Structure formats: C-alpha cells, structure tokens
Fold each of these.
Amino acid sequence: MFGTLESKPLPLIAVSSTPANPEVRARVRADAENRPGVYRMWGPGDELLYVGKSVRVRSRLLSYFRAPKGEKPGELIRETAHIDWDYVPDEFGALVREMRLIQRHRPKYNVQHKRKRAYAFVKITREPAPRVVPAGRVTDDGSTYYGPFPRVGRVAHTIRDIAHVLGLRDCPGSTPVIFDDQLDIFAGRAPLERSPACLRADLGTCLAPCCGRPTSRAYDERVRHARRFLEGRGAAPLTILQEKMREAAARHDFEYAALVRDRLERLRIFQQELTAFRGRVDALTFVYRVPGHAGNDRVHLIRGGRLRDTLPHPKTRDARRRVAARIDAVFGAFEPGPGGLSPHEAAEILLVARWFRLKPDELKRTRAPEDWLAAKRPA
Ligand code: SF4
C-alpha cells in the first residue's frame, strides 16, 4: 500500500448506504483505472483540498464515497467538486510527486504536511558584522545557509551556543556596528562615545561591534571559525570551551566548569550529527531503477537526496544514449552547496532519505552513475 511514507491516506472506517457526491463518483467509476497514481480533490471554487496517492487509484477514490458523514474522508468527499489524477508508474515517483504538490499548494486536508514540517537552517548573514542566526527558510539574500536540520528547537539552542562561544553578535541586523580600526580613522568622533547596546558585551559573550570594540579582522576571524565549524572543517568553538573549562576547574569554579562542559557536549553532538547528516545526504547519489506498472520501468536520477529527473528505463541503444546524456548532465553539473537549497528541496531530501531508510532493500536497485555509464553507455 502507498501511504506508509509521509502522507497516510485519510482513514476510511464505516460504510454508508448512500454514496456521497454521486456525480463525482460516476466520473470516477467511468474513468479511473486501478493503476498507481496521484490524485487531487478540488473544492467548488477550484481550491485544492487534498492530494493523495495510491497503487490502485480507482479503488482508493471509490472508497471515499463510502465514508460516513462526520469523518474527515466523508467531509472531504462532500466538499469535493471534482477530482483529477495522473498515473505514475511507480510508488517512489508517485511519492515524490505527491509531496511536491502538497508542498506547493498546501491543501487544507493534507493535515500531516500542514502540521508545519519545521526544518531549520543556520544562517550566517552578509553584513559588515555578520550574525549567526537560525532561519526557517532559505532566501536569496546573500547569506550562507547550512542545513537543513529537522529539530528546530535544538538547532536554535546550538546556534546561540556558537554565537556566544565565538563572540558573534545575534542582535537585530539594524543594530549599527563599527570596528576599532574604523575608530582610528574617525578618531574623536561620536562612535568613541558608544556604549554597548546589550548585556552580552559586559558578559564577555560578544565582541561587541555595536560599540567598536573589535577590529574588523578579529571579528571576521571568528566568523571564519563559525563557518569552518558548520562545514565540519574546524573545531574552534570546542577548543575555546575546553580552555574555559580547564580555567574554571583551575580556579575551583566547578559550577561554571559544569556549565561549560554541558555546552561543549551539545556542540560536540551537533557537529557529529552535522557530519553524519551531510554524509548520508551525499550518499543518496545514484541511478535508481524501479519496476513500473505494466512493465513501464523507470530510471530515477537522484543526487544529494533530490530527485533530479525520471526517465523510462531504456530498451534500445538510442534510449540508452539519451539516458547516458542525462546522467552526464545531472551528475556532472556544478552544485552550489547548501546555500542553494530551498525549504522544498530540503523537505525532498528528508523524504528520499526516509524512503531508503524504511526500504533498505531498494538500495539494491541503485547504481553509482559511473557504474551505470560503464555498463550501459553505447560505445
Ligand atoms: S553586544 Fe552589541 S553587537 Fe553584541 S549582540 Fe549585543 S548589541 Fe549586538
């Protein structure tokens, strides 16, 4: 059955003797076939109410008409003015298509997807004194984004740790900043009089560019440490915390040492998860051949956890040449990295990862692009 992943079909429980919405039902009975596909249920004002998928579209759709009034499927079918559907030869293709439609239209009955699948990104802003802040979505604002991370609350906590350990600001972007080396240029002017705009300056958890304390070079150095940490190429926040813990223990401030130890542990776990997540996403790069309905086998090209293209499984020399050309294009193209991800793309990565996690045998149908080309590209 479809529905084991992401969007479960609305549960159909009881049987009513009077079918709801007889005109729509008549059309389904006349036209729908028992083949895999994705269906859409529309309201009278052409509002998309629900998107679903099934390996047997006709049976699935007809079952809605037997749902009792008062249950969600019953309410949905009574509200539906018309239904349309596409046949998709394979379950994986249908799953991705369904998710993309739901992400794009946010139909009101797709409660699971509407339950705000919250993914978080870490954003390093593009400003004179960049900030490290959590972000719910990627926008084209020149910032660098890292992620996606599925646990928003914890990510926000960890980002705060990174900012505080490295002394990076997390105040609003509108806070005026100035650097110590700029003060030299404007010696004697107003910036010298500035006081810190928040307590972090006095607590020593921010270098405080709001009052011109760091040089731009010193601040940039800390930003570089943050980037390297998020890219899995540096451990400066961990080193700083280890040093603080050692100093606290040396002066017998065990309470503070315990606080630092907990923060250190959180950042260590975060970095391990980051590395593991990135590795798992990179590993989702292959050519995935699946059996399709009535022999319509498909070849999915998956790179970095995202479905980039789907083609019919090639049966002729010319078709193999076409698939080889697409493989070259899809897997050979330059990828800008996490900064290029939209939230929808992030959701797709998590969906694809979940598919292979729940169906590990499906990995036996995958091949590295270069292996596919070596075996199948016509000479
Ligand atoms: S100390 Fe100044 S720069 Fe740092 S977070 Fe506070 S307001 Fe922003």
Amino acid sequence: MQFKEVIGQEKLKYHLIDTFRAGRTAHAQIFLGTEGSGQLALALAYAQYLLCENQGENDSCGQCNACKKVHKYIHPDLHFSYPTIGTGKISTDFVKDWREILNETGPYLSVMQWLQKMGAENQQGNITKNECVDIARKFSFTKVEGRFKIMILWMPEFLEKEGNRLLKLIEEPEPETVFILVAERQEKILNTILSRCQLVKLSQPSDEEITARLLRDQNLNENQARQIAFLSEGNYTKAVQMATDGTADSDLSTLFADWLRACYLGRENMVHWVEYFNSGKHPTDEKLKPISIGRKEQILFLQYGLFFLRELTQLKLNPQGQSRLSQAEQKTAMGLIKLLSIAQIDKIVSLFDDTIYFVERNASGKILFMDASLQIHRLFKPLP
Ligand SMILES: [Zn+2]
C-alpha cells in the first residue's frame, strides 16, 4: 500500500514522512478515526514507507523487494495483531484469513467483515492474554532485513486488562521499533495505553474524495457514485458495501422528484405514487420500471431527501453559491425554491426525521408515506 492509495489525509501523510526525515519517528502511535476513514490503510502505507529500500519524497517506491513484501503482507519485519475468536487463540492462528481478507477487501475493512471472515457468527472478537505474550515475543526478534521492526495492532479496543502487558513494550521500546495501534473508538482504549502513545487523528474523507475513489474503483456512473458518497456519511467502507449491494441501482433522485411532484398535485397522484413506492408497480403508468423498495431503501430514500433539502436550503440562502446537486436535481430544486419557504423546508426535514424513526421501528411504509405525502401536500397548498 502506498500513501497515494490512501484516500485524502494529506496533512497526516506529510506529517508522518516529515517526522521520519527529521529522525523523530515516534515509537508508539495510535491512528484513530471512525470506521471507513482509512486508519489501517494509512498504517500500512506508513509501514511500507519506513521499510522501503528506495523511498521517494512523498511515497514508498512500490517496486523494491520490501514494498512487494509489505504489499503481500509477508514482510518479516512487519507484524500484525488483531482480534480473534476462540479461547486462547492468537493472531498467527488466523494469518491466512487475515492476508486473504486484506487482499480481497483491502484495508478499508470493518470489524464486522473480519469477524465474518473468521466465521465468528455470534462470537465476540478478543485480543487474548496469549496474544499479548506473543506480541512481546515478536518484539524480541531482531530485525530481519528492514531498518525498522513494526507491529500494527488493529483494534486495541479489544484488549482487556491484559493489554497492560504491552506497556513495557510501549514505554521502553527497543531501538528502531514502531508500534502502531489502529483504532476507531478512543473511549474504549485502555487509558494506560492511550496516555503513552502519540495520537494521530484521521478525519473522515469528504464526499468528493469518496466519489472520486468510487468512480476509479467501482463500476458506477458519476450520479451513482455521488449518491452513494453522501449516503455513506464519510465512511468509505460503507460506501463500497453500498456500491456492491445494489444501492447504486435505485435512482433515488428521480424517485424523490416524482414524489414531490405527486405531493404538489395531490389526490390520486399521491395515492398512485405511494402504491408504486410500496408495491414496486405503478397502478396506471405501465412505462415506469418496477422497483424494489424494502425498509433499508426507504431509509436511504429519506436520507437522500434530507441531503436534497439541505442543499435546497443552501440554494435559497445563497443562490450563487456552490451546490452539490447534479443538473437534474438543480432543475427540481429551482422549481421548488419559489414554492417553499425556509420554515416550510424545516418542517419537511422534521417530517423525514420522524418518518425514519418510525420506519426503523417497523411501522407500515404505506401508512407512513401516505401520511407524509398529505403533510407535504398541505405545505404546498395550505387549506384556505
Ligand atoms: Zn520500495
């Protein structure tokens, strides 16, 4: 993994390279970010940079023997530790699965995906006492070929008090050892460990960065990539899951524009739209393609609606400002801008929030969306 493969995080990349060049590489660091921010990717790129035989100014070379070994997760000076299942197990017992999932899924990996890969079903992951002993053992090896000996410990949240066995390694490190803990939740990390490590905080990738990466790596058009990027809320792991589970196929923006139009027109237009949205088949318009909308898609649809309304508010406040809407969406927005005041848009926002709440609690979609349609209709056309 090279730095250029890590989405965004430019400042941190610069910082990591800069401290290395200044001879100030920290012995123990925690790379912290929410799921899908890329902390494991950054840790791997950093490890590759430190081990590379031919470092460039901004990145590892990607070509030398060391880079190739890191790329295959088999460099003898790069060790991994991660949660495992089963009593007394250690990471080495699952190293084949670990390499496989990194090769297949890549480092934008969720804990859930990893537990599934090991066949955990309902078992919790754990970093065991035996694993902590094994980490210390690995640190006692001399370097094989690199300039550094590196341990990437993924998810220190899974260390229980056994984690205190690692304190000595963190506090009195051997020379040229780098210990990188890769975490999502600061409050779940042992304080004793947290206070002894340098904290490297990742930000979430932006919608634009996620869109660009989806366009490069997934088979999506621009509109689909953009739609998924904002629904993923800065979580690239979630974005990739959505790109592959069919979310991209539903054209939420057209469906949403049709709904608002039906709400504006009222009566049978609303009834027909709700029928279409719930059964997947339009009662009168044969040309409309059948859709499949389950509970999950209903929530995505409303989340999309919230995004659209946020952008609509921005357009209303600042008509010349930058908009994240596509051309087709802007057309819908321009039609609505004269019809709705900011206060009315706010009402629709709370209506969507409430509707999401009830969809999550298994209320009937048909009733919820009929009720929401009537409320929106009344905002367009108040009773005299
Ligand atoms: Zn290299």
